[in-house]
Amino acid sequence: MATDRMITDIRRRNLARLLSPTSIAVVGASADPTKAGSQALQVLSRFPGRRVAVHPREKEIQGVNCYPSFAALPEPVDLAVLAIPAERCVEAAREAAARGVGGVLIVSGGFGESGEAGARLQAELHAICQETGLRVLGPNTSGFIHPAAQCVASFVPGADRLKPGRVAVVAQSGGVNLSLCFLLDRLGQGVSFAMGLGNAVDVDTAEVLEWLGDEPGTSAIALHLEGIPNGRELFDVLSRVTEKKPVVALPAGRSDVGEFAVSHTGKLLGSHQRTVAGLAQAGVVVVDSTEELVQAVAVLSCFRLPPMPEPGFALVTGQAGPGLLVADGLKTESLAVPPLSPDTVAGVATLLPPMTYLKNPIDTGRPGPGFAELLRTVGRDPAIDALLVFGLHEPAVLDPVQVLPDVSATLGKPVVFGSLGPIGDTTPTRDALASAGIPMVESPERLVQAALALATDARARWRKARVEPVGAVGTATPITGHLDEDSAKRLLAGYGIDSPSRTLCTTREEAVGAFRSLKTPLVVKVVSKEIPHKTEVGGVHLGIDNETRLGVALDAIDRIPTLGPKAYLLEQMATAGVELIVGGVRDPSWGPCVVVGLGGVMAEALADTTVRLVPISRLDVEQMLNSLRGRDLLDGFRTLPKCNREAIANAMLGISRLMFEHPEIAEVEINPLRVNSEGALALDALVRLNG
Asked: Rounded to two decimals, what is the model's pTM?
């Protein structure tokens, strides 16, 4: 009987066989050109390896030998394409595993996406994979394309006409996979590898990305994601892959803001927000549309800046109007367009006529013979990391194919060209530049997108290198039982998060004694495991500065209906400041996360929050705070105090460490965290354990 380790080794070898097959069988092959089995066999006509077909009656289809079953094959194949109904696929997969087939690609639908019966079939496929080591791509997938190997394991017309290139595509949806391939083709870009995962019963995104990270023909990866059941695993894989190659992702589901937990913290975090945070922290460039995706990945397949916090861009334009649009777009995206040094400006002045703008952006007027030297002069400036060039398509005035590759090679810096011309006129130039490794985009706005992709990739890798180490998961003593507000604050104190002086009282007599010992005015709150949010039930009373008001507050708390016992928490009131919400949630896919936003009773209404996966660094904290729409409130806006950002950072880092060290915590929320120039205090705290 095969051990788990043996199955793991078999699965690893079989994944390589599936993705790089030397022999392929089509099951369900047909002479009818309308059938998927016929199309699958047809697009494999140029496959240089061995092709066979499995058919119970035919001896030959499209010149390919047919065999009645897997058992009848003269030798095992690396890949079997199943173009047969769903109910027959399970038995076919079992027979393939018994014959030593590496993997099967299931074209058919009718599995987990179709209801209970289909879900049972899908579960059987999964079990076969786990028991035998057979790999399954799909079901419900359009397959994969490896143009350089002339391997088109797909039934979609036109897939066999895609040319080889440097960009790989991995998509949850087979339709999106091919849509991205065709969009790349329209940009003059080829494809190194493209796969639609379908239902991903076995082969998943993380495995394919890991493989592509070491695939020599791939320079950049385009990624489309829908549901992500294994976010933390995907995060770890992407963190490794983005060190080697750029990845650009389009995650679906921007409108998903569904509830995650009972507290404000969970309600403020849509799953899409956590997905974007996880991808960005792993070093991925995240975009919002298929067009942005293909534009960004095409640029990054040609060039990649080294890790840096703020790349500097120079813009050289042959026309002032489009140049202004590009410059405005760069500023809107917070991309640096640094002024050129005096020496560079002096050098540029010798190459351009009077009345042109020389500082950055550089308006050349109509490009002249000295354009190449102008670009080299600008590109040598130490503040410039990449050159953006825009010029209307005028080959008689400027031949970018002759100029730009040489300039880029001389400088050792990225050069991206933007242009526009009549339909069809620019295509030869674009294709020639692509062959020379220079990306060309066709609008001022796309030139801005290209710069943003380069900068985002460089910033992400710079940030990753600055993540601070944290302790090991689960090393702290596990927390058990219910934590009320007082015990939650004591827990937070162990992670450097302060709160006001307070006393927990179980009787009115204790409350009166606590009132006399604490510095007034006080806050008096109800404490009950049945009441996570006290304000909503009238359980918070402010400004208690005498015993008469104390009695009124205690009476009000006594009237709050609860099934179990209640207690009173008396706490000194904090000085004025800005109220934030700081918390952590344990996402079922992405794991522990930290959130910060504008807090208080209006937290849900404002929904001004940002999130990162644990662990976070001080750089993450700075970026999170600066991304808030209400960030000006932290810096002394009007009558508000200037907030101590260091104190906010300490609280957020404390939550990060708490969530990391205590896997039993499902959620922690500080709302509000009162912040002023003196520091930060947790005025309310909730800790909820798993289950």
From this structure: 0.91
